């Protein structure tokens, strides 16, 4: 399957109503309130879904039951008064509730802004494959990086309100592991979640012409080796156009991680860039998924960039 551009949602305007949902782990109330205050400072009108602050009665790692988490997301998406759906945090749990969503109803409701990363990767893939909608791999409302890092905040704010102003993603720390230039449609997210999703019903079976966007946290180099090896063995990386890597927070020594990336991805024959400033690191830049982009990885040590050929939002 050759990747095609996905339907992009409308940009936000002052006063836009945004729903905050918790598809995965439990949400600290104090951090949520601070995040809501930041959104209000952007002249947004945030509303918290009914079950966001719940805890699963038996499983402490989940924010409420699977049914409640799915109900909140679907209700927010299908509510015509809601302009965007923002995730409160990641963690674990999206795999458990993704098949409880009525994707026909959500597809009929049309595209709208959806933001999250980490465990939310499962939902990014579902929106792409089941609804045909572009989404934003970006910071979540009740996470420390969103609350503390001004670069993270500004990258998301600009993407939401002035998407044409953030067409190029770059980082001084970025390195070309395999030089070259590639064009394709962005897709991906957290590497371990992509591997966990592979082989399940409705999962992506190929991504011809895609620019794979990956990052992760807490995965030692040997575990990253296993994750990438699984994707290679099942053919999930066949015919992709390039690989764009973000941060590898708490994944071990940078040289060990980079050695694994070069070993497992270098044989694909496509450009590979590492450390482009998104993911679980101290700064989480916003990356549109499902849009055409150009990856530039200069061989001479020049600045590596990912340039989106259209604004993230219309």
Could you characterize what this model shows?
The strands form two sheets. The protein has an eight-stranded mixed beta sheet with strand order 6-14-13-8-9-10-11-7. It has a six-stranded mixed beta sheet with strand order 2-1-3-4-5-12, sandwiched between helices. It has two domains: 17-164, Murein tetrapeptidase LD-carboxypeptidase, N-terminal domain (Rossmann fold, 3-Layer(aba) Sandwich), CATH 3.40.50.10740; 166-308, LD-carboxypeptidase A C-terminal domain-like (Glucose Oxidase, domain 1, 3-Layer(bba) Sandwich), CATH 3.50.30. It has ten helices and 14 strands. It has 314 residues and is α/β, with parallel strands linked by helices. The longest helix is centred in the N-terminal third of the chain and has 13 residues, at 29-41.
List the helices and strands and how they pair.
Layout: E1 17-21, H1 29-41, E2 45-48, H2 66-78, E3 84-87, H3 94-97, H4 103-109, E4 113-116, H5 121-131, E5 135-137, H6 144-148, H7 150-161, E6 168-170, E7 175-178, E8 180-190, H8 191-197, E9 210-217, H9 221-233, E10 242-249, H10 254-265, E11 272-274, E12 287-289, E13 292-297, E14 305-308
Parallel strand pairs: 1-2, 1-3, 3-4, 4-5, 8-9, 9-10, 10-11
Antiparallel strand pairs: 5-12, 6-14, 7-11, 8-13, 13-14
Family: Belongs to the peptidase S66 family.
Active site: 118, 215, 280
Domain LD-carboxypeptidase N-terminal: 18-138
